[in-house]
Amino acid sequence: MSEQFTPAEEKNLTPFFTNLNEPVFGLKLPQEVAGALFSRYSRSAKSLRRTFLDEFLGAPELALKDLLGGQTLASDDSAALKKARAFYERVLVGYGDDSVAQLGAAHIACERISNVAANILEDARIGIAPLEKSTRYVRFDQKDESGNYAFYREPRIMASPHRAAYLELLNLLFETYSRQIDPMIEFVKRSLPIHKIEIRDPQTGKAVSYQEAERDEKLKKWAEGAYLSTVRAHACDVLRGYLPAATLTNAGFFGVGQAFEYLLTKLYSHELTEAGELAAAIHRELNHLIPSFVKRAQFSDYLAESYRATRALSGQLVTEPPVKAGGPVTLVEYDEEAEEKVVAAILYPHSRHSLAELRRLVARMGPGERKRLLDEYLKRRRGRRDKPGRAFEQVYYTFDILGNLGLYRDLHRHRILTQERQDFTTAHGYDTPPEIEAAGFKPDFHRCMEKAAEVYEKIYRDLPLEAQYVVPFAYKIRWHMKMNLREAVFIGELRTMPQGHPDYRFIVQEMWRKIIEVHPALAEYAKFIDWKSYRLGRLQSEMRTEYKKSVYE
Questions:
Q1: Which end of the chain is more exposed for a tag (fewer CB within 10 A), N or C?
Q2: Inter-residue contact 154 to 166 (CB < 8 Å)
Q3: What are 284-304's pLDDT values in tens digits?
Q4: Is residue 444 within 8 Å of 180, Cβ to Cβ?
């Protein structure tokens, strides 16, 4: 159901969006404003256009002329736009110069899409930047005006004998989540009350108790606001295990034309109905924004037939059941000569030798000489934003990971490294958050998970791809990640920060334990990995947010 706007709101919105009544639409905004809007939208229960109306269009510091860049927006039939599109038609379509398609870009919002579809869209690793609605800041206990919970009604399942079981299961999952969200918030408050929390003054960085903070009205306000936000986020983190992959989400995408063209081709060629529908909707909106760049996007026989043929043959060739995994993270392969490769790469830009020659020279160096060079290259890092240099890109690791769907959504966001996942499934079991058991919700949780597995298996026999929609976030899936050491440092130092979700912090810590085992001399330079465990680890980050908000009040 499309969102409703008053006539006045429609008048205000029309210059900035490609349509006002479809869930997929384009933005006609300066890129800085569009980026800020997407960022705010990812943490709001509102639609993007409603967020723009309520929080951007009426802001006194964002006058209409500023949003338009001081100029009137070019209409679709303006002479300048016609000339630009004629040029791109001639070069891109006529001569096939794909690099030209990297010069134009667009913002696209996709609202009320399933998490299955969101992950397919976010698989586009290069040339497209996604930002998705968070399960941490937004509750999923609300029904729409028709009285329905926010999950995708998959057309093939809805037209099959599995319809009733599908609806019954998904409504059960959402009803259980909704019934437990407020009690879980209260449980978190009781288990870790504010007066037992150490608070860090966002201005001075000094650690103080809540009792001390109470003496300072401003600090008390910051602490209480941050505490409540953190408690709500923690409760949402715990209960997101109930949410099925069919859960509707909102996502914003910024991408260059070349990347959008390939994404559309992949979507058109995908076997899921939702993917094909999204391809048509996104293509329609991009035709308003960068039509020359996506003109060639269409169904690909090559992609579709290759997928179907390899899937069918895989079923014939791989018939043995999988061996039970020994742990959540397996280091499948790594470079035996990692240290030599890194040291040679450090030397390379400062010499006239070939890389092969330098590796031979480094192989004859003693451990002390190598360490001196590594120290000079890396010892000046002051924090995780001081990235190691490109020499760390010479060494690669491949990890096979078994973790719940919820944490996969977080680790999936890393764009450059190579990763591939298997279909969402209930075959590998599920994780039960300790808070679920401590709060007395374990019987309900297990009943929901077992029901999900039962329904999944029934649907899988007839509709194996569509069965993914019923898989709750608590269930484990398998994927592999191949990354170089520089990327591993980035992920390790980013994803172990205190405010990170405990599930993915654990997985990343495990990855780094494996790296330390095989390359201790190199691993010591990833010195900003946080190995601790936290309760309400996001509190200090929320304190800083509350402080920044107060500055603008």
A1: C
A2: yes
A3: 999 988 887 888 899 999 999
A4: yes
Burial of 511 (0-12, 13-18, 19+ CB in 10 A): buried
Distance CA 498, CA 529 (A): 10
Q: Look at the block and give the residue holding tokens 């397919």.
A: 120
Residue 105: closest CA among 123, 129, 82: 129
Sheet containing 329-334, strands listed edge to edge, beginning at the edge strand earlier in sequence: 329-334, 396-404, 476-484, 418-421
Burial of 416 (0-12, 13-18, 19+ CB in 10 A): exposed
**Which whole-number Å values give the CA distances from 482 to 186, 236, 420, in the listed order?**
41, 30, 9
Question: pLDDT for 118-138, tens place per residue?
Answer: 999 999 888 898 988 888 778
Rounded to an integer, what distance in angstroms lies between the CA atom of residue 296 and that of residue 264?
9
Place of tokens 């002329």: 65
* Maximum distance among all Cα pairs of the chain, rounded to whole angstroms: 77
What's the one-letter identity of residue 299?
Answer: F
Taking residue 83's Cβ as centre, other Cβ atoms within 10 Å add up to 9
How many CB atoms sit inside 10 A of residue 342's CB?
A: 30
> Which residues, 6+ apart, have CB-to-CB distance to 275 below 8 Å?
117, 120, 267
Q: What angle (nearest 5°) sits at the alpha carbon of residue 244, between those of residues 242 and 248?
A: 120
